[in-house]
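Q: A reviewer asked whether we had any structural model of the full assembly, not just the individual parts. We don't, so I'm hoping you can provide one. Inputs are below.
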Amino acid sequence: GLTEKLNGVFKALKGRGKLTEKDIDLVLKEIRMALLEADVNFKVAKQFVAAIRERAVGQEVLESLTPAQQVIKIVRDEMTSLLGEKRCDLDLGARPPVTILLTGLQGSGKTTTCSKLARRLKNEKKKVLLVPADTHRPAAITQLKKLGQDLAVDVYNSDPSISPLEISRKALEYARTNTFDVVLIDSAGRLQIDEPLMQELCEIKEAVDPKEILFVADAMTGQEAVNVALEFDKVLDITGVILTKLDGDARGGAALSIKAVTGKPLKFIGTGEKSDALEPFYPDRMASRILD
Amino acid sequence: VLGKKTIDEDLIEELEEVLIGADIGVKTSYDILESVGDRVRRKELGDADALKNAIKEEIQAILHREESVFTFKPEGPTVMMVVGVNGVGKTTTIGKLALRYKKEGKNVLIAAGDTFRAAAIEQLQIWAERAGIDIVKHHDGADPAAVAYDSIEAAKARGADLLIVDTAGRLHTKINLMEELKKIKRVMTKVIPDAPHEVLLVVDATTGQNAISQAKLFNESVGLTGLAITKLDGTPKGGVIIAIADELDIPIRYIGVGEGVEDLRDFNAAEFVEAIF
Ligand SMILES: Nc1nc2c(ncn2[C@@H]2O[C@H](COP(=O)(O)OP(=O)(O)OP(=O)(O)O)[C@@H](O)[C@H]2O)c(=O)[nH]1
Ligand SMILES: Nc1nc2c(ncn2[C@@H]2O[C@H](COP(=O)(O)OP(=O)(O)OP(=O)(O)O)[C@@H](O)[C@H]2O)c(=O)[nH]1
Ligand SMILES: [Mg+2]
Ligand SMILES: [Mg+2]
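A: Here is a predicted structure for the entire assembly that you could use as a starting point for your response.
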């Protein structure tokens, strides 16, 4: 990982006596490469390296007996603080039924994440209603119904012949009448450049006034994570991000990219296909993953 | 846009951003710029446009080698197994392929080999109905190898030209799931010794460098004979397939450009490279 790389760079530089700013540039280049290899966005990586340059050319590094360790520490600290200083949970602070809307690109894990959130909330003694509002993908409604059944969580009986907007409205009505605490709305995957579909999400937001609009992103997303997240945030003013499929070996640089450009909190991570595979997002753990 | 600009540091940085921004990856981008850089140093390239075209040629050379249309066996059912990590578009791609080859006059059969994920069988069933073709399926939780076995038997019995087997999404790092895939493949050989004739890895164009790891590990486990890259109708460029092509030399068959049944095209290196710039 980065630690070995920097140790190598510093070892090669050590022979020349005291470190110079030019030497540090070499080190920063190495860091930038490592970030790009971990799928951190090009511009975000550049900004990040510029930010740590300040500290890297300071006394703590240039006068240190273990400059590699110092730089690693600076990089790790900076990344951890960028990813979010502290844990950030779901915001359920509203009169019930509290609505949570899940959004994101096709295949990112929204439907599965809905069931994971349902399980978590059920464990917190909340009465949860799952709402399948994807009328586009074949068997999407069936998928959420089956997941709900496995959890013994109610699933709203969405009519596939009406619009997702109508389904959301009716489901909220149903939730009020039947005293549900939380309503989880699963939306169809969509491209951020698909204007009518982004507009559809706006209308759903307008109609059900969600307390949380969660952007569900795949941990293996590459450079475009920035443009996708920015657009979803611009159109919807998302309240949080969930990064899925972190049980694989994707470095997850998209986490840094998304946080850096939207400023919105990373709340949870998906760590598997089953309904119990949802964990809180820990900035320091994510930083280690990206850097190692 | 770059036009007659002179070749300088800023231009190189701009091109670096385009290449890396297309998910081509640091190492591959630098290799491309390095090799093109030689030509710049030898004064063979005069301005930004010439440089850009040289880069395009470089990439196209790597990808052109992988342009290779899927071909059918002269006799007996041709068996295609579709694999890949979760959510990349395997099932949807199978739906598209089924209709396409049916329209070409082939007798197509598909198998619901994903017996794990909720409503996976229902999802493929709907695609089968859309294409007007038969589907072999068991129940949720059935052994996928049994589904594979039955489907090849059925393909032989019905004189199908093409059998496409869907499999559950799985992360390449999960050893037990990769073992399951090997078992599905082994079971197929019991019915048709050289099946599957095509093992198609589906990669999502939004994926970054992790796609290289996916391709390597799937290749090691089941041997890949083709690649499909989906969701190219989005903004990502899918540049990671350049590194995959360079390192693994696997034919790139199809690209997915939408969620509709017609949204499938044969891979064309020139168009792909053009889209990057
Ligand atoms: N390994 C792993 N797989 C996951 C995770 N989250 C979701 N998946 C899988 O990813 C695939 C896609 O999940 P879905 O929930 O259908 O994704 P989606 O965003 O609802 O997809 P669309 O509705 O088509 O946009 C499925 O195979 C899920 O089981 C995760 O954290 N880890
Ligand atoms: N925009 C776009 N969406 C696509 C494309 N191909 C597939 N999708 C969508 O991606 C999502 C996932 O597709 P699936 O076919 O379920 O993917 P999968 O690989 O079978 O998923 P698992 O079986 O859960 O691993 C669906 O919403 C599809 O409609 C494509 O080329 N473009
Ligand atoms: Mg879904
Ligand atoms: Mg599938």
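A: Points you may want to mention in the reply: The two ends of chain B are 10 Å apart (CA to CA). The pocket of magnesium ion (ligand 3) is lined by residues A 110-111, 134, 137, 140, 186 (CB under 6 Å).
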